[in-house]
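ok so dumb question maybe but i'm new to this and my supervisor (M.) told me to 'just get the structure for N-acetylmuramoyl-L-alanine amidase' and walked off. so i did the thing. is this what she meant?? sequence i used:
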Amino acid sequence: MTRQIKSIIIHCSNTPNGKHVSVEEIDRWHCQCGFKRSAEFRQRQNPDLASIGYHFVIYPNGAVATGRHFDEIGAHAQGFNSKSIGICLVGTDKFTCAQWKSLEQNVCGLVTDIVLLQGTKDPQMPHVLGHRDLPDVRKECPGFAVAEWRTHQMRPLPGHILDEGIGDGW
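this is what came out, is it supposed to look like this??
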């Protein structure tokens, strides 16, 4: 990782909860928005994804798809892309236990990597926040409070679990 990362920003796809939406579909949406990836980074990772703005997409089954390369500036949070990593949960406001677990693992792994690679001594770095937590953002993305999730020890938040009747998955 060669660029300075200060934030991990969590998003949602704003699609029906539990419905599979592929990284290729999200790439098509981002293409329609005019997002473009450089040829250099497309050669390094995911050459078929010409426009994806996120670095990771987490599917309802918990699988994690990669989008942009770590060193590639994202297209997911205007004004914050150059120093952030973007993670998108497929759905809107309720996510499967598998998604919650993958989100926790992905965020913890990224924080560890960023701290080790950048040698930061600030315990607050990188910041982990939701898109809606950024200044001047008027969205409910993701459909839960990331700060509350973090203080809840990164466990699924009540009222935001899609498969509550199946068990808590923890």
